[in-house]
Every structure is written in C-alpha cells, then in structure tokens.
From TrEMBL:
This is VOC family protein. It comes from the Bacteria. InterPro entries: Glyas_Bleomycin-R_OHBP_Dase, Glyas_Fos-R_dOase_dom, VOC_core. It comes from Cytobacillus spartinae. PROSITE patterns: VOC. Residues 10-127, 168-282 form the VOC domain. Pfam families: Glyoxalase.
C-alpha cells in the first residue's frame, strides 16, 4: 500500500455520471460494499473508511446512456488489502449471482471485473507482494492469465458485508484517442513513468515504481471522439500531490508543453488530449 501515499502521485478519487442515482446507490452499497459519506439530491460521495471519498456518483439533470466507441472510463480499480478480502468479495458476487465480466491473474495482481448498472467498468483487485514483481529495464512484467478461482476462494472466510476500511482507489484505466499524444501529456507533463506497454494499443504508467496508477488504451479506436458532456461515464478523477511545491512543479511542466490549466477551489483542472478531465489536488 506504500505506492498510494506521499511522496507518490496517485489517483485519489473518481467521479462518475449515472442515469439513476438511487439505482446506482443501491448497487454500490449492496453489491460493492461502499458506505455513504455525503448525500444530496443528485450526488453521493462513497467511502470505505468513513472519512475519505473514493467514488462520487452524480445524476445530472440531462443525462443519457453511455456512448459506445468514445474516450473516457474503461474502468476504475478498487485495491483491497488482502487476498482473503478478494476471495470474500468474489464469494459475495457468486451468492448475489451478479454477472462478472472476467477474472485475471496479471502476475503483479489478481483481479475481478464487472460493471455497474450503467456500464461503468469496475476492477476489484489485490496486489501480489512487490518483491515478487519482475522488472526488466524499467518495465514490469504483466500478463492476462486465468485466475486460480478455487485457490482464491479457499482463502476466504465466506463473510462479506462491506469494503474493508483500508480499500484504496488503486488505479484508473482510460480509453484515449491517440497513444503518442497521451504519452507526452502524462509523462512529459504530469511526470508519470512508463512501466509497461501492450504493443501500440496500451500504455501503463505510475510513480514510485508501482505496476500502474493509470492505464491508457486505444481499444475504442484510434481517433475515438470524446463523449457528450451529458453522457454516462467519467466526469473527472483527482490526482493527489504531497505538497503545493510538488504540484506547482507539475503545473509548470504542463504549461511548458502547452497544456491549458484552470484553477477552481484550490485545485487545478486539466484535460488530457482525449478530453478526460483531471483535478490536481493536495
């Protein structure tokens, strides 16, 4: 978990738009196990520890369904503290008979995939010890292999009621329109390091030697358009900086490559070349 603390830069919170707030709230409470931190007529902040929001769901006044073949959210990923937690969550999904989209062994982690009622992608995963990750020339070895379901379930207690308090927003994975422009923005601008590539279609980046804090892909097509503002999907995500000094350094880097930056309520707001909105916070 030390990859998600100072001095590293990482995803703190994800904000998504949904069609039906009550339907989504029921899903995120009863299926995923979040607790409500704050709630208003059209927005709910969700938490695992009762203090910090990991996910915010919003229902704008004029909202329509998720648009296919656009940029935006591929999935957000909740990092659980232990393999037994992942086992218990999987057993919970099985008992609910909630449809899953996949389960994979990525060598650095084990993951379960599903979607919320609006099609927003979700990964729930657990990391293997970082001492077991295989690095070669600055790249970490990752793969997509079948997960050992029987071995995983054997580690669980069969008890699941809510997300563990130590759950984190482990990473976010985005659809983008152009990988080279995206690489320049996130690496030359935001200061992330490339840790893995999947051919010419996907890129994984991080700070501090994590296997990835952000995934980026062109699987919806090179040149894919940004979704409408009122489409279901990602509204923005926050990147957490350890200090004003570290954030100002990145702001200067972004301005140096021509990125437009606005300031709102002690946070800087930027958009990547595919239109994904990012809030830089301390």
């Amino acid at each position: 978990m030390h990859f998600h603390r100072s001095p590293h830069v990482y995803v703190e919170k994800v904000v998504i738009k949904v069609l039906d707030l009550e339907r989504s709230l029921s899903f995120y409470k009863n299926v995923i196990g979040f607790k409500v931190l704050q709630q208003s007529a059209n927005k709910v902040s969700l938490t695992a520890d009762g203090e910090n929001a990991l996910l915010v769901i919003e229902q704008p006044e004029e909202i329509h369904g998720k648009q296919p073949r656009t940029t935006g959210l591929y999935h957000f990923a909740l990092l659980l503290p232990s393999r037994s937690d992942l086992a218990n969550m999987l057993q919970h999904f099985i008992q609910l008979q909630y449809p899953l989209q996949g389960a994979s062994d990525h060598l650095v982690s084990e993951a379960i995939y599903l979607a919320d009622p609006d099609g927003n992608g979700i990964e729930v995963y657990v990391d293997r010890p970082s001492s077991t990750w295989n690095w070669q020339n600055g790249n970490v070895e990752m793969a997509t292999k079948p997960i050992d379901i029987e071995g995983l379930l054997a580690e669980g207690s069969g008890s699941w009621s809510k997300l563990p308090t130590d759950t984190l927003m482990g990473h976010i994975h985005l659809h983008v329109s152009n990988l080279k422009e995206t690489e320049d923005f996130y690496c030359k601008g935001l200061g992330f390091d490339i840790v893995a590539r999947y051919g010419s279609q996907a890129l994984f980046i991080s700070t501090g030697g994590y296997h990835h804090h952000i995934g980026l892909n062109t699987w919806n097509g090179i040149g894919a358009p940004a979704p409408d503002e009122n489409s279901v999907g990602l509204k923005y995500f926050t990147l957490l900086f350890s200090s004003e000094e570290s954030r100002e350094k990145i702001v200067n880097q972004l301005q140096g490559i021509g990125v437009s930056i606005s300031e709102e309520n002690n946070r800087y707001v930027v958009h990547d070349p595919s239109g994904n909105s990012i809030h830089l916070v301390i």
